[in-house]
Design brief:
This protein is of the alpha/beta class and 234 residues long. It has a single domain, classed as P-loop containing nucleotide triphosphate hydrolases (Rossmann fold), CATH 3.40.50.300. It is built from seven helices and eleven strands. A nine-stranded mixed sheet has the order 5-4-6-7-3-8-9-10-11. Strands 1-2 form a two-stranded antiparallel ribbon. A hairpin with a 6-residue loop joins strand 8 and strand 9. It is globular, with a radius of gyration of 17 Å.
Length: 234
């Protein structure tokens, strides 16, 4: 199976990268590094000359680019050249809510229910996609509705031969019963925990599954430096 680089040292631990034309789920708690891991993936895709896209549901393109630049990932040059497209879903959500509230309506479920529509926002010819964060669409969805729409999204990405990473915050993952993991090809989880021996707060990344791939069984400690994610020795 062909692989697409994660942009991190993780490549050497999972057979060379994420399986090509498949979708990975990246879940984790707030501040655990899941967005940064996603940015590494996108940066490497751009570096390799692949057409990339980010569907940004919680941040503006400018904020994402600034975050990437702060850890040594120069996404701005790819964005300016058109190699990287960033969909302004966050901006649109904010404007939509303002419009709804202005006419004193309280039903804004439509804003959070169109997961399937995300596939239409991806430009033709795109090879690499990061969706951050799918969890914003789950607030008022039943588990069954989420599963149906999420499956349709995964199917649509596969039909277009897109290698994707979908980020989902752990709270949304728990709210939907963890069913997203059954639809994707692989699952990676980031977390923050207190080391009982040192008392220090540590970030961990765990590979929970990747089909047809030998994966590390133990959590991997990592830090976020000026050069991005750095894996730490045991």
């Amino acid at each position: 199976m062909d692989r697409i680089s994660t942009g991190m040292e993780l490549d050497g631990m999972i057979g060379g990268g994420y399986p090509r034309n498949r979708t990975m789920l990246l879940t984790g708690t707030t501040g655990s590094g899941k967005t940064i891991a996603g940015l590494h993936f996108i940066n490497q895709g751009c570096l390799d000359g692949r057409k990339c896209a980010i569907i940004a549901t919680e941040e503006t393109p400018e904020d994402l680019i600034n975050q990437a630049e702060s850890i040594g990932l120069s996404l701005s040059k790819y964005y300016k050249k058109g190699i990287l497209n960033i969909e302004r879903v966050y901006d649109e959500r904010a404007e939509y809510i303002k419009g709804v509230l202005a006419v004193e309506l309280t039903d804004i479920d439509e804003l959070q229910s169109n997961i399937i529509g995300l596939i239409d926002r991806i430009p033709e010819g795109t090879e690499i996609v990061l969706i951050d964060n799918i969890g914003v669409f789950t607030l008022n969805m039943s588990t069954n509705e989420f599963r149906a729409q999420f499956d349709a999204l995964i199917h649509g990405l596969a039909k277009r031969n897109i290698t994707a990473v979908i980020i989902m915050d752990s709270a949304s993952d728990e709210r939907t019963g963890g069913i997203a993991a059954y639809s994707v090809y692989g699952v990676i989880r980031t977390s923050m925990k207190d080391n009982p021996f040192t008392g220090a707060r540590e970030r961990l990344i765990e590979v929970l599954k990747i089909r047809n791939t030998k994966i590390p069984l133990d959590p991997i400690r990592f830090d976020v430096s000026s050069n991005g994610i750095v894996f730490l020795k045991k």
